[in-house]
């Protein structure tokens, strides 16, 4: 990674940039804070250039790719906290931290509510109802969320599944059939392992529901249904609780839709699972 300060680097290389490269540089200068949350597709659209131009711009500054450039930009902006929240002072007391965390959580939920399409939830729930098996996948921190979502659905149906790391997910994907569905959790929607797994899933004719933040993420091209979460996450704050809250909010809406559409079966299943778990409590 280039160790120079992003703005110093941009100033020193500005005269060497192409006309389209300068257009990107000018946009970043004017919209520094917002730009750190944009996908490469979104930044290209805002600048009126091709994605390849953004990539060449990053390489001209000495970065290996877009994500490395975005991290450097975020470091230069020095905003480690969630978007829209007041920056915390080092001496802030715990009561202030509680207020801050509450504001961030509410912002994540409200932001998600504003971008979540009810019709997409309905379409996703229909896929779940018709599926032979539903696999809840994710990678890294998103895999933990996928497991949480699987556990929630597992109380009402045995057709929900999960898998281990990306290797095990690839194995599961290779054995899927058209009646299967994958619910994939990926905030960025643009990881290599995710794309590889989804290509195998689609190659077998199975359906894909993608839960992500970016409507223009590469993974959306392989999804039958896209569910959006609205929490913004800085490149310096990966795995933030706010983003997790946003993802789980979407998942809870999907669970509610699924169970309400299958009220009788869901009620019987929850009665049985609750009865089975009761002896395990002290």
Automatic annotation (TrEMBL):
Residues 124-264 form the SIS domain. GO terms for molecular function: carbohydrate derivative binding; DNA binding; DNA-binding transcription factor activity. Gene3D superfamilies: Glucose-6-phosphate isomerase like protein, domain 1, Winged helix-like DNA-binding domain superfamily/Winged helix DNA-binding domain. The keyword Transcription applies. Keywords: DNA-binding, Transcription, Transcription regulation. It holds the Pfam family HTH_6. The keyword Transcription regulation applies. Residues 4-80 form the HTH rpiR-type domain. InterPro entries: Homeodomain-like_sf, HTH_RpiR, RpiR-like, RpiR-like_SIS, SIS_dom, SIS_dom_sf, WH-like_DNA-bd_sf. GO terms for biological process: carbohydrate derivative metabolic process. This is Transcriptional regulator, RpiR family.
């Amino acid at each position: 990674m280039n160790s120079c300060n992003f703005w110093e680097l941009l100033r020193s290389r500005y005269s060497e940039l192409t006309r389209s490269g300068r257009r990107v540089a000018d946009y970043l200068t004017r919209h520094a804070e917002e730009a750190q949350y944009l996908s490469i597709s979104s930044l290209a659209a805002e600048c009126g250039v091709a994605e390849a131009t953004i990539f060449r711009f990053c390489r001209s500054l000495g970065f290996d790719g877009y994500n490395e450039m975005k991290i450097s930009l975020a470091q230069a902006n020095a905003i480690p906290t969630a978007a829209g929240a007041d920056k915390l002072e080092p001496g802030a007391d715990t009561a202030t931290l509680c207020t801050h965390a509450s504001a961030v959580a509410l912002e994540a939920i409200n932001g998600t509510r504003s971008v979540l399409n009810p019709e997409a939830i309905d379409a996703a729930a229909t896929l779940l109802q018709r599926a032979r098996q539903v696999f809840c996948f994710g990678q890294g921190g998103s895999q933990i969320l996928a497991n949480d979502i699987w556990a929630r659905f597992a109380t009402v149906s045995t057709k929900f599944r999960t898998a281990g790391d990306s290797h095990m997910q690839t194995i599961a994907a290779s054995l899927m059939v058209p009646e299967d569905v994958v619910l994939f959790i990926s905030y960025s929607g643009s990881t290599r392992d995710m794309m590889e797994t989804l290509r195998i899933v689609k190659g077998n004719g199975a359906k894909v529901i993608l839960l992500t933040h970016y409507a223009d993420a590469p993974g959306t091209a392989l999804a039958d249904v896209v569910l959006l979460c609205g929490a913004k996450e800085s490149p310096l704050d990966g795995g933030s609780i706010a983003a997790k809250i946003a993802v789980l909010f979407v998942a809870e809406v999907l669970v509610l839709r699924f169970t309400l559409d299958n009220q009788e079966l869901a009620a019987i299943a929850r009665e049985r699972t609750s009865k089975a778990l009761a002896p395990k409590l002290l």
